[in-house]
Fold this sequence. Notes:
The complex is a heterodimer. Chain A is mainly α. Chain A folds into two domains: 3-175, no CATH class; 227-460, MetI-like (MetI-like fold, Orthogonal Bundle). Chain A is 77% helix and 1% strand. Chain A contains 17 helices and two strands. Chain A is flat, with a radius of gyration of 31 Å. Chain B has three domains: 16-61; 64-199, no CATH class; 210-427, Orthogonal Bundle (MetI-like fold). In chain B, α8 packs across α15 and α13 (326-355) packs antiparallel against α16 (397-427).
Amino acid sequence: MPPAYLLIALLGLSTAAYYFGRRKAFALSGRAEGAAKLHSRPTYHGALTALWCGIPALLIFGFWLVFENQVITHLVVKELPEAIRSLAPDRMNLVINDIRNIESGSFASQAAEPAIQAAADHYHRLRSISNHALAAVSIALLTAIAVLVRGRITAGLRARNQVEAILTVLLVACSTIAIFTTIGIILSVLYEAIRFFKVIPITQFLFGLDWSPQMAIRADQVGSSGAFGAVPVFLGTILISAIAMVVAVPIGLMSAIYLSEYAGKRLRAVAKPLIEVLAGIPTVVYGFFAALTVAPVIRDWGSRLGLDVASESALAAGLVMGIMIIPFVSSLSDDFINAVPQSLRDGAYSLGATRSETIRQVIVPAAIPGIIGGVLLAVSRAIGETMIVVMAAGLSANLTVNPLKAVTTVTVQIVTLLVGDQEFDSPKTLAAFALGLILFIVTLCLNVIALYVVRKYREQYE
Amino acid sequence: MNSPIDTAAAPEPQRTIDIVNRSLKRRYRAERRFRFYGLAAIVLSLMFLALLFVSIVAKGYSAFWQTSIRLPIVFDPAVIQQDTLVNADYAALVREALFKKFPQVDGRQDKRQLTALMSSGSVYRLRDMVLKDPDLVGRGAEVWLLADDDVDMLIKGHFRRDLPEAERRVSDKQIAWIEQLESEGRLERRFNTTFLSAGDSREPELAGVWGAVSGSFFTLLITLSLSFPIGVAAAVYLEEFARKNRWTDLIEVNINNLAAVPSIVFGLLGLAVFLNFFGLPRSAPLVGGLVLTLMTLPTIIIASRSALKAVPPSIREAALGVGASKMQMVVHHVLPLALPGMLTGTIIGMARALGESAPLLMIGMVAFIVDIPKGFTDSATVLPVQIYLWSDSPERAFVERTSAAIMVLLAFLVVMNAGAIILRKKFERRW
């Protein structure tokens, strides 16, 4: 039985268990008195039966699927001929992949070796045994528990309390997923990054000026030696983010000021959602726009002015990224400007200040911590933005601050290093995780500072 | 605000009102300037938005029409034998029809150029026709067949006819043939059903978005079925049950942080944990859905919490007052009232997940996949990644395909967001 059908069957059986338990409860209560004799309403007895049956069955189902592959692979490898088993680990992985591909039939390999073919058959047999065993075990367990729980249902059973206790545990478990995600990110990125730093010293990575991650495939190959000095990559990221902020901060801030202080109700009702549409557009669309519309225009203008503009200039990517970030800056600034108490405005007006003087000398200074928090969040957004730079910025790691040249960014490098074939023992692949670690740490710091500032600011006027 | 006064030049003491009046003109000018900057900023951002949409639509709308050529095809029994219906040489039928249409064409070079007018997909079209109706064999029929993408680009005006021949992808002879076909009414732009029903292809005229749309559908189904229950449960716990202590503070900080972590980092997590550690299949909607679940969870939790916060405490107190347990109070009274707000947040989170591509690049959903995925573990790609892949293709025809795919993606997003807005308008309640 394929796992998907088994899952449906298990859910169906749990539902059946619900009615099974409820019927028992009704039967206990008897006709005359109704449900009054019971401690809990019969639905709770049903729910209790269903939970007791469903949760263990699903747990077994999940664990089985997680470990099934490893166990079967281990068994298959043990049966392989000695010649194949003594291969190096990376070659071994290829063989295992071959076996799996043949087994799943997705891959008509050119006349597989008999040993491999036999292993694939063996794999297939084991998998079908495993599937059947899983189905048998989980269904048997479910039924056994259903009967057991049914036997324990009595009029005095505190079914509601037990159901609620189980539900509370489930709720707590769900809320901790955020923590596990963070731990997962840190562990996975850190683990691979440490492996990288064992090969390439961390100082060389952080302060080296040369980035060319192509490794030599053969030992005697000339040229691609693999240099992992990430400074040009960091500089490119900073350059593009800076261009984006130069576009986004003035436009975002001014439009927020105009919308909250000057605009009438009608303009506000139209313009505010429209500007926020900019935030809802997928970044891949911006990337396409940057690469095919903005970049050629900039290059044309540049050549008309006699400037030498790269076709993948930092300016195009930064400009479009700035457009994407406008709504972040404007909606956050809008919130903070609106949070400034009216009394401050009234005070400034009563002293004879014009509206713009009030805004520039009273409201903006009062809102500045919040605005800075918003801008920091926008910066972290710009640094982590991927698709625009992948499509519109280059791959060549130039050490330059000239916005007309092509630069590369952290995210672009992560994508190019990890898309395609990956070898998890080559520094080239691991470098992506080192870059990911830096990216995570930097954005984390920016976010923590920004959230702290914003929270402090909110408290100030509450 | 008081301008500096030259005290030496002023013989008698001035009244404040004079100083103010003198500076007033300058201050009003500054006021007008400031106002203008604000308006300019809004106009500028709206212009960007308009430019974006106009450029995409202008590039992409033509992809919904595709050039077809009507050819009198003879289903020659000599070519199609009864036992080889599936793999008969249908290309020969197309060639025959073309040579009969243009009997003056001679020489290998010219003949090859002539057959290059037709898409390589016309073979499958003819095969499907014969398989559906085997009686066609031995008869003739007028059949609309897809033209090659170069012909299509020429007809749509993306290749200029006045360029020197060497710089064109379509030769002078081919243009003459095309013009002849056009004058006979054998060449037409017809609605492009291939684009909406096919999977990816290396040939632009055969490439479609349906494979990517199905991939997106399976991915989002996983995301929705995991992130909605988990997100709501987490929000309920944090908002209704949890005591405020270090532990819940830690969870809160984590959720707020995860909401701002770059999406590509989630891709790294998916690669390291789901693919390398658990050994789940690459390029599968299952893994894509899991990664997007982790990514959208914070959005849904935050939205659900604010929906729960909006339910007034009097409801809770009333429920507890008539003897409901805390769980009953939440499940029977608070959740139903907060559900519209939670759903709105979920739809917005799903819309974000639909547009997301960076983390999916990490887990191998960028492969070139022709087949339309049928399940959660088939190799698949999603709509935004398809857009990324096409935007990299060198053929001119893929530019309009990319824009058209963007239009499809934006259409889905508009529908989802409109749904969220309607939901909010309909169920919004002010207490």
